[in-house]
Structures are given as structure tokens and as C-alpha cells.
Amino acid sequence: MTKNNSFIFFLLAFFLIFNEATFANSEESAIQNVIQKLNSATVIHGNFEQQKQLQGLDYPLTSSGQFIFWKGKGLYLASSKPFFNASTITPDNIIHWQENGTGSISEEQSGL
């Protein structure tokens, strides 16, 4: 998957998860609806909660935080619980953030 396709996938996935509107039954309709809404919005932000079932744990790991999508600029995704983990995904780079506000560009993603 190319970097731009990965970026679009993240945007679509997060918008689908956090949008409270009801989408049409067909997958293609839902995708077109998301694309239309993303094209008309400059900034989309919200909170999220997700659960992951990890091997070795008898219960799902629940994380929560916030996201900000800024059209043409990127996606900021920050988990605050159970621990801080934040990244910014731009068309050119992925930046991993520390809790103190310093960031570093992911070497394996840079320049793709």
C-alpha cells in the first residue's frame, strides 16, 4: 500500500468510526458518503474509544483519546488511556509524539 493510500485508509477508517450519522446499507454508498463529507470538511475532530483483544489477556484492552483531521495537512491521533501514545500522519511523514511535546519523524515511513 502506498503512503497516500495508507493516509486515505486511516482517514476513512477514523471518519467511519467516529461519525454518528447512519450510512446506507451498501459498502460503496458508505465509502462515497465518507469521501463527500471529507471533501467538504476542512477540520474534523472528536474523541474515540477502541478495544483490542491481545493474545494472553483474558479481557480486551480499552484505549481512548482524541483525533484531529485537517484536510490537506494530516491526521493527529492521540491515546490518553491506558497510556499516552500520539502520532501525526501527513502526506509526507509519520511523526511520533512524546508526552512532553517533542516529536520524531518515523525513519521507515519518511519520504515514501
Question: In summary, what is this structure?
Answer:
The protein is an alpha+beta fold.
Please give a structural write-up.
- With 112 residues, the chain is of the alpha+beta class.
- Helix content is 27%, strand content 36%.
- The chain has helices spanning 3-18, 27-40; strands spanning 43-52, 61-70, 74-81, 85-89, 94-97, 103-105.
- Strands 1-2-3-4-5-6 form a 6-stranded antiparallel β-sheet.
- The longest helix is centred in the N-terminal third of the chain and has 16 residues, at 3-18.
Q: Choose one word for the global shape.
A: globular
The chain-level structural class is alpha+beta
The biggest beta sheet reads: 6 strands, antiparallel
Instruction: Please bin the fraction of helical residues.
Output: 25-40%
Strand order of the largest sheet: 1-2-3-4-5-6
* Spatial separation of the terminal alpha carbons: 11 Å
Query: Overall mean pLDDT score?
Result: 79
**SSE string:** HHEEEEEE
- What is the number of helices? 2
Radius of gyration (Å): 15 Å
